[in-house]
Amino acid sequence: MGCKAAEFKPWLSGLCTLVGIHPTLALCTSFKRQLLPEFMADVPALGRKAVLYFAAALAVTFLVLFVPAGTTDYWQAWLFIAVLFIPVALVCAYFLEKDPAFLERRLKLKEKEKQQRAIIRASQVILLIAILVPGLDRRFGWSAVPSELVIFADLVFVLGYFLTFLVFKENSFAARTVEVFKGQKLVSTGPYAVVRHPMYFAQLLIYLSIPIALGSYWAFPLFLAMPVILVLRIQNEEQVLLRGLPGYKAYQKKTPYRLIPYVW
Question: 217 in helix, strand or coil?
Answer without folding.
Answer: coil
